[in-house]
Amino acid sequence: MHMRMTQIIGACRSSETDELQHRVTDCLDAVSSWMTANRLQLNHEKRELLWCSSAGRQHQTPSTPVRVGCTSVHPVTSARNLGIYLDGDVSMRTHVTTTVRACFAMLRQIRSVRHSLPRPALLTMLRLLVTNRLDSCCSVMAGAPVLLRRLQSVLNAAARLVFPARKFDHTTQLLCELHWLKVPERVRSRLCVLTYHCLNGTASLPC
User: Fold this and answer.
1) Domain spans, the chain
2) Residue 80: strand pairing partners
3) For the whole model, what pTM was predicted?
4) Among the listed residues 149, 138, 204, the one whose alpha carbon sits nearest the alpha carbon of residue 171
């Protein structure tokens, strides 16, 4: 029987981390016992522990492992959750770095076959393999201008690939011709659509 990912989330003051670790351990022991009684088993290889705090309090987060059954889980600096990489300091840097790296790798592959593709096919590939990845859960980037500039560099490179243009050519006009919003505008658009659906009771979980 296959079970989806389960998350246990707790909050505490920096002076209460030991107590929280004990509560989490007790909770996981109860889950493990229930699963054993129902002929199920926890996946020991996919357990992750992430302590989140502000950047200034990162030194106060525990570095000791948490016991889960007969194994120990060591804290990680980032963890993937519903397609988004969360950092311990809630900076989203890992998520942006992963997204930018994957998009540029895809752009290099598309560039190698660009001359063999008609423009409609090229635009379709860019939309499916690059811009869709940029848009995925992009609303979590609201209010992070430095990170948005890194994502914008991907969109600029994609626009230069279409026309084509030189590496340092301005892309404002290119984006207008493609009818592509810049990344901050894409984020605001997503937030506006999500707000509309929330107000009308039709909101879905993805960002």
Assistant:
1) 14-76, 92-199
2) 85
3) 0.80
4) 149
